[in-house]
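Example 9 (inverse folding). The structure is encoded as follows.
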């Protein structure tokens, strides 16, 4: 395992066609939208969920790559399992027990090591700050939300056989190109044990996670660009926002965009600050 020694900032660009990339439960599961601008939104939590799902699939049964936040997980039980280990019980002081438990949790769970976690178990409260942070993804242009009526041919109960078939609704975005910004702290990576192997797995997840998480509701979602700014130092050589400004996305059509080909992504590599290198992983 190789320790992470460079701060990293990245731009992740993905799109959706005829699908709902992130439904809002407070709005009848309609695609999330900025009410003032009409721009589509995808939460950081949604994207991290897909990363977790990818790692859970490709690393199933591999020690050190379990997932803490997963379906039907009882977090109290998972934390208690760590507290009964000899590594934790060897310490008498509660603060030392918490530190030992945090280390074991980081060693065991990829998502804690990467994104951090809040441990809210009674008398075992604690927080792990993860090295990877991501923003909400925001669409380049405003999105048009379409609602579709759907029916089903089958019924649930015998008594409903002769009744009209159930009507339902399905919401989609005809097309949307979304941009997410991310940050990876080498300083926090050292604290959780996040290393170069974990980083490579994270990049693989961003590239391929949509292909292992298909759903009829989400339509065609695809990773289109992953632009990485790597600093020569642990704390960084330039402000992240200045680096992100070097990436420009321009519309290449006068019509409503309906594919990634309707956009052009440009990187101003001539003005990349000294001490920073840029790489396109997709």
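The amino acid assigned to each position is listed next.
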């Amino acid at each position: 395992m190789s320790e992470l020694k460079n701060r990293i900032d990245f731009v992740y660009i993905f799109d959706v066609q005829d699908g709902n990339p992130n439904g809002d439960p407070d709005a009848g599961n309609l695609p999330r939208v900025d009410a003032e601008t009409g721009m589509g939104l995808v939460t950081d939590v949604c994207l991290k969920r897909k990363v977790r799902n990818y790692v859970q699939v490709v690393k199933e049964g591999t020690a050190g790559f379990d997932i803490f936040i997963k379906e039907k997980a009882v977090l109290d039980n998972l934390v208690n399992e760590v507290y009964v280990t000899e590594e934790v019980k060897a310490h008498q002081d509660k603060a030392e027990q918490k530190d030992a438990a945090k280390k074991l949790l980081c060693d065991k769970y990829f998502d804690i090591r990467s994104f951090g976690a809040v441990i809210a178990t009674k008398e075992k409260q604690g927080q792990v700050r993860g090295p990877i942070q991501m923003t909400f993804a925001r669409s380049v242009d405003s999105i048009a939300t379409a609602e579709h009526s759907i029916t089903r041919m089958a019924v649930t109960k015998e008594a409903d056989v002769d009744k009209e078939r159930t009507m339902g609704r399905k919401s989609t975005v005809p097309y949307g190109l979304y941009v997410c910004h991310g940050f990876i702290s080498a300083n926090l990576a050292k604290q959780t044990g996040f290393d170069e192997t974990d980083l490579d797995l994270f990049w693989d997840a961003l590239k391929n996670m949509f292909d292992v998480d298909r759903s009829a509701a989400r339509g065609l979602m695809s990773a289109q660009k992953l632009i990485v700014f790597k600093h020569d130092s642990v704390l960084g050589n330039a402000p992240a926002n200045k680096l992100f400004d070097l990436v420009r996305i321009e519309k290449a059509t006068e019509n409503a965009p309906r594919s990634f080909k309707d956009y052009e992504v440009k990187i101003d590599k001539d003005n990349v600050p000294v001490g920073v290198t840029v790489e396109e992983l997709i």
